[in-house]
Amino acid sequence: MMAAESFEETLFEALTEDTDDDGGLTPSAAEAEPGNFLRHAAALSMTKLADGLLDPKLVLSWLLTHLGAGSVFVGLLVPIREAGALLPQLLTAPRIRAMARRKWAWAAGSAVQGAACAAIVAAGLTLSGAAAGIAVCAALAVLALARSVCSVSYKDVLGKTVGKARRGSATGLASSVAAAGVVAFALLLLVGSAERYLLVVGALTLAAALWLVAGAIFATLREEPTPGEVDGTAWGQLRLLREDPQLVRLIAARGLLTATALAPPYLVLLGAGAGGGALEQLGALVLASAAASFLSSYVWGRLADRSSRTVLSRSGSAGAAALAAALALDMAGLAGTAWAMPVVLFGLMIAYHGVRQGRSTYLVDMAPADLRTAYTAVSNTVIGLVLLGSGVFGALAALAGPGATLALFAAMCLGAVAVARGLDEVEEGL
C-alpha cells in the first residue's frame, strides 16, 4: 500500500505544479489528492476516448449511411447528442446537488452511456434502413441524457478532490491520452486492412467497454461527503444570471467560441466546393482533429491552471486565425488541395480544445464551492440553446456560401477575444 501511494505521489508531482499548495482542499482531501488526480485522469481519458470513437459527426454518420438509414436520421445525430447533453442539466442539477457524494452520479452516468453504446452496436449488427436509424437515434438520446448527468456532476467532484492549480492538468492530460487513441483509430481507418464496417463496430464495442470501466474507476474516488439539499426549483437557478455578471460574461465568451465547434463542416464544404475530394480527405481530417487534441490539450490544461481567462482569449485568437487562413486559401485557389483543409482543421481544433480547457477550468475556479453544480447547469443549458440557435443561423448563413459562413465564425471568435479579456482572473498567485 505504501509503495502504491509513493508511486501515485511521484507521478502526481511529475504531472502538476505547486503540489505543496493545498489548492483550497480540506486536509483529508489534500491527502487523497494524488490518487484522486490519477483516477480522474484515467476515467476521463477513457470517456473522452469513447467519445472520439463514437463521434456522431463522423463515425455514427458513416454507420447509418452504410446501413441505409437515410439522411433524415443522419441529420438528427448531432442535434440529439449536443442538445440532449446540455439542455437537461438545469433540471438534473438540483437533485445532484442534494447528493452527499456526487461521484455516484458520474459513475452511474458513465455506466448508462456504456449500455447505450452497446445498444448502438447491437443495432448496427442486426438492423438496417429506417429501423437502424430509429434505434441508433433512440440509443444516442439515452446516451446524451446520461452524458448530461456526468457533465453537471463532474466539475463539482473535480473541485472537491483536485486542487485549484491542478485541475486543468488533470483534464488536459486526459484529453491528450484520449486523442492518442483516436489518432490510432484514424490511422486504422486510413491504412487498416480490415473492412471499415468491422473497424467501426469494433471501435464502438471498445467505446462501450471504456464507459463501463471508467464508471467503475470513478466510483473508487475518495470524495468527502458534503451535506446537500434541494435548493429551490430548477428554474430558480437562473437567478445566477442576475446575481453574477462574471458568469454572464463567461457564457457570452463561450457562446461566441461555439464557432470553433460549428465551423468544421463548412471547411469540408469549402474544400469540396473548390474541387477537393471531401470523402478522400475524410481520414486526413479525422487524423488532423485527433492530432490537434493530442498535441494541445495537456498544454492548454497547464496554461489554464495559470490563467484560464488568458486561455479563452488566446483560443479565440487562434480560431479566428485558422478560419482566416481557410478564407485566404480559398481566395488563392488552394482550398481544394489535399492538404489545405486538414491543415486548417488542425489549427482550428487546437483552438477548440483551448476553449474546452479554458471554459471548464474557469467555471470550476470561479464558482463558489456549494454552487458549482448550479453554475455548471446554468452555463451548459444556456450554451445548449446557443448551439441550437447557432446551428440554425449557420444553416441560414450557408445560403451565402461556406466562405461567408466561415467569415461569420471568424468574427465570432474575435468577439470572444474582447469578451474574455474582460473576465476577472480567478486563479491564485496571479
Task: Write up what this structure looks like.
- It contains 17 helices and no strands.
- With 430 residues, the protein is mostly helical.
- The protein folds into 2 domains: 31-221, Up-down Bundle (Growth Hormone, Chain: A); 237-425, Growth Hormone, Chain: A.
- Helix 8 packs across helix 14 (278-331).
- It starts with a helix and ends in a 9-residue tail after the last helix.
CATH class of the largest domain: Mainly Alpha
Q: Which runs of at least 5 residues are low in confidence (pLDDT < 50)?
A: none
CATH overall fold name of the largest domain: Growth Hormone, Chain: A
Query: What do we call the CATH homologous superfamily of the largest domain?
Result: MFS general substrate transporter like domains
Q: Biggest sheet: strands, sense, closure?
A: none
What's the quick description here?
By secondary structure, the chain is an all-alpha fold. It contains 17 helices and no strands.
Write the layout of secondary structure elements.
Layout: H1 2-15, H2 27-54, H3 56-66, H4 71-86, H5 89-97, H6 103-126, H7 129-161, H8 167-191, H9 196-218, H10 240-243, H11 245-256, H12 259-262, H13 264-273, H14 278-331, H15 340-366, H16 372-397, H17 402-421
